[in-house]
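Fold in tokens:
===
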Amino acid sequence: MLRTITPPRGAVTPIVLNRSSQFARGLIAWFSLGDRITWGSRVAVDSSTRHHNGAITGLGADNWDATQRIGSVWLSTATTTGDLITIASTGDLVFGTGAFTVNLWAKFPTVPFTAPWINNRVTSTSANWTFEIYGHELEFHNGNARLLTAGGAPEDDEWFMATFTRFGTGTNEAHIYLNGERTVTGTVASNLSSVNNFIIGHDILGNGAGWLPDLGSGANLSDVRLWNRALSRPEVSQLYRETRGGGYGSLALPTRHLWRPAVAAAAKTGKSFLLFMD
């Protein structure tokens, strides 16, 4: 008889990047979160080829929720700084006037007043940005300036996929999508040139002097991805279809580790053995 064991709660499981997936092209950061966090060293692993691993503040292994999406992590604001992940500043994540895409999955017990998801905004002036939920709206900001707003945010306690795309120099066309459907189109011509740390889960104004209350009573976040290109409308729709069931879609290759010697031995002896699958 074969038995299956799974990694302990909060353990890191490998994700193999499928380089043949269309979503691997231009991928510059991929934080699946919950199942790609090494709690001992407090690192949120970047599963792209760029390896922009993030440093964890506040989060502990108990923040990993195995009952939620693959890779879901629970963030709260119970302390002064709350729970957050910091990705050190890098030229890879400075978009300037170029094209880029930000995509993530989130779920809130109650839709909060304001919740910055991912940003590099440390001042209220231009050149640094945030993608956030504000009340029941999805918003993209440059500094404190609200550049694009989409209504119709999801209901309480529902998983949803939020996407921002900009096509960059030439058109500056920008879009916000909710669950793979485009909800608003506009132009974002701003030069997002600030070289700041990237933050997942908080918004730090004044270089850390002022923390916005963020995520309300808390939130689950999962599968944060950034590209240095604008995903097309069909690509965003496909990404939603691929990942709405809780997996990583075509970006990840499924991995199965079978201990062949143990399989052979069990076949000969008829004894049970442990089969590790991830």
